[in-house]
Write the structure tokens for this entry.
Amino acid sequence: MSELTVHSSPAWFKQSLRLLHHEFRRGELTIIFLAIVLAVGTVFSLTGFSEQIKQAIISNSANTIAADRVLGSASEIPTEFLEKSETYPLKSARKILLDSMVFAGDNMLLSELDGISEHYPLRGKFMVKTSLDQQSPVSVGAPKQGSVFVEESVLSRLDVKIGETLELGVLPLTIAGVIVDIPDRSYRMFVAGPAIFFNIKDLKATQLMKPGSRAWYQYLFAGERDDIESFEKWIKPQLNEAQNWYDAKSAQNRLSNVLNQSEKFLSLASMLGIVLAAVAVAVASRRYG
């Protein structure tokens, strides 16, 4: 029996080649082959294209939080966190938010006070006009010590002008410009009043920070994707319940919901591409099915 199998194998092989050649001449195997190539190419191209769009959306959305990642805390974080970020290396900036009354002569106004460091923002642009007649705003960082940037409504509500002073706590500060655009303003759900930005180095002189003062600290980080993800893996286990680490997608707001929905839509588009490719192969090979 084994001898018969050995002698018949070349015959079967020749017969198989003959049938394969016949099928190729009919053209249907060529259609199946092209359908498979098209299906594989479609799947890979859709997957890669969707991933590129996804990364572009995430990259651009980082502008709306002024950084790639933000660590929010009800108190100052340990210095070792910032020292560790420098080893990756990452750029960092600080921001402290509090609500307080500001004064100008006999006028007062409840405002959102934002103390920022010199490197703010790490992503996006902080746009300011140094005069009301200025046509195009300029991108700036933190105001110089002794000065502030204010939203335009502050001028009318406190009856002041650019170049005049207002008081934050006990510290008089000069109005150096009018804010046009704040990159991470959309991430404040509840705003007490118009924003006033000052240099974080002036915070101590204002004497606003006293025991029991309610303030929110933000530490902004930006860098290469691999570096930021490595730092994220290190820092997350170190955080406590009063600290919040987030990016543009994980922040709890309408924009993060839009980003998540966009990602789901792109994934759905990739799946539909795979289904259509499978249907194309099935239709091409229906004779053999």
In short: Confidence is low (pLDDT under 50) at residues 1-7.
